[in-house]
Backbone:
């Protein structure tokens, strides 16, 4: 339930605001403070989702309250309440971080719309923080085998640069994970990380997806649309399964890499972009070049740094650590207590032929956690995971 604080010294205005907010929705929990000092104290001691704050008040005015609260709880949105003579000050409070302002006497529709928008923004900020924490925790390779140690060392060296990276390896080995990790450790980690699965986009749409289009470029182009390269400006674009990209799209990607500019489908107008390109494929691009399916000049542009992610069968010593990692993660997601895998169960899983690599192992671990006993045994593995 959203919790709202109203800081207003005029009791009549305060009552009106409380009445409007209470009648609008029984999901709002509304509290009040009759001056700035009491309001500041309330913000310090409570978790509010929104504060409505008058500007002209005794003891401590609204601008001072806003500035003090921005230091201690910057994520809490403020809507300032202004009299006619306070409009210039109200506009200035937005430069100090206020979400918006409303004039006295408050207009019903204007007030409720502003409150809803401010609460939506607060929710987005919270979600974004959670997502950033999740990203920071999840995008790291699990394992201490020599092959994984070499990849980690290479990422540490390559990530801070703008060098293009081509990641190779079989399906399910963790190529996407490597790409995310490179971005997270780069200087561009505050900017977007945009993923494009080249194999999942029809060849006739891939150019529009990557570079955007202008209205009228083709039948369904009813408005101008930016592409993934523009969306990734200042950040990283990850071209997954680039071996499946059409030759015409490859030519445009090559131009983007050579000139740092793109043009939307349907126009020759150039748009400058500053994008780091990380690509991945499960194909042998050298063979694709020989077969005339992949441009050799594009390959050399992409493969400044080559990272080969090993198959799980080539790093079996990492399997116990991966099992423990997935068991903890899945238990957390399912809201259940983590299960222990017996030594014999782990040994049997290590001996499996993991054609689906790490992705397959995760699925098997999840299956065993759901279907296995309190301790996942060798018998559970034979029953639910053996091929």
Residues:
């Amino acid at each position: 339930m959203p919790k709202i604080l109203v800081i207003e010294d005029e009791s009549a205005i305060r009552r009106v605001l409380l009445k409007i907010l209470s009648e609008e929705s029984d999901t709002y929990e509304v509290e009040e403070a009759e001056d700035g000092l009491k309001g500041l104290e309330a913000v310090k001691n409570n978790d509010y989702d929104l504060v409505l704050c008058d500007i002209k008040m005794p003891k401590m005015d609204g601008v001072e309250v806003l500035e003090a609260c921005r230091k201690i709880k910057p994520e809490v949105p403020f809507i300032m309440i202004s009299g006619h003579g306070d409009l210039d000050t109200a506009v200035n409070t937005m430069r100090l971080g206020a979400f918006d302002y409303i004039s006295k006497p408050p207009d019903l529709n204007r007030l409720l719309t502003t409150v809803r928008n401010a609460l939506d923004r607060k929710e987005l900020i919270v979600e974004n923080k959670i997502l950033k924490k999740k990203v920071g925790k999840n995008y790291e390779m699990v394992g201490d085998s020599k092959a994984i140690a070499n990849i980690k060392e290479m990422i540490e060296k390559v990530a801070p640069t703008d060098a293009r990276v081509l990641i190779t390896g079989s399906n399910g080995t963790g190529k996407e994970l490597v790409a995310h990790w490179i971005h997270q450790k780069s200087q561009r980690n505050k900017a977007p990380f945009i993923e494009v699965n080249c194999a999942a986009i029809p060849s006739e749409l891939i150019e529009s997806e990557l570079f955007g289009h202008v209205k009228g470029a083709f039948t369904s182009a009813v408005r101008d649309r930016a592409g993934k390269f523009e969306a990734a400006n200042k950040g990283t674009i990850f071209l997954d399964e680039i071996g499946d990209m059409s030759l015409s799209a490859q030519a445009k990607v090559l131009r983007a890499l050579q000139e740092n500019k793109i043009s939307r489908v349907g126009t020759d107008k150039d748009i400058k972009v500053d994008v780091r390109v990380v690509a991945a494929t499960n194909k042998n691009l050298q063979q694709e070049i020989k077969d005339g399916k992949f441009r050799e000049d594009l390959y050399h542009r992409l493969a400044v740094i080559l990272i080969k992610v090993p198959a799980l069968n080539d790093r079996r010593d990492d399997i116990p650590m991966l099992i423990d990692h997935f068991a903890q993660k899945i238990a957390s997601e399912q809201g259940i207590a983590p299960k222990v895998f017996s030594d014999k169960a782990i040994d049997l899983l290590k001996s499996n032929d993991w054609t689906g690599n790490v992705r397959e192992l995760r699925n098997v671990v999840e299956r065993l956690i759901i279907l296995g006993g309190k301790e996942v045994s060798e018998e559970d593995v034979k029953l639910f995971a053996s091929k």
User: Anything to note?
Assistant: The chain has three domains: 3-135, 141-310, 313-384.
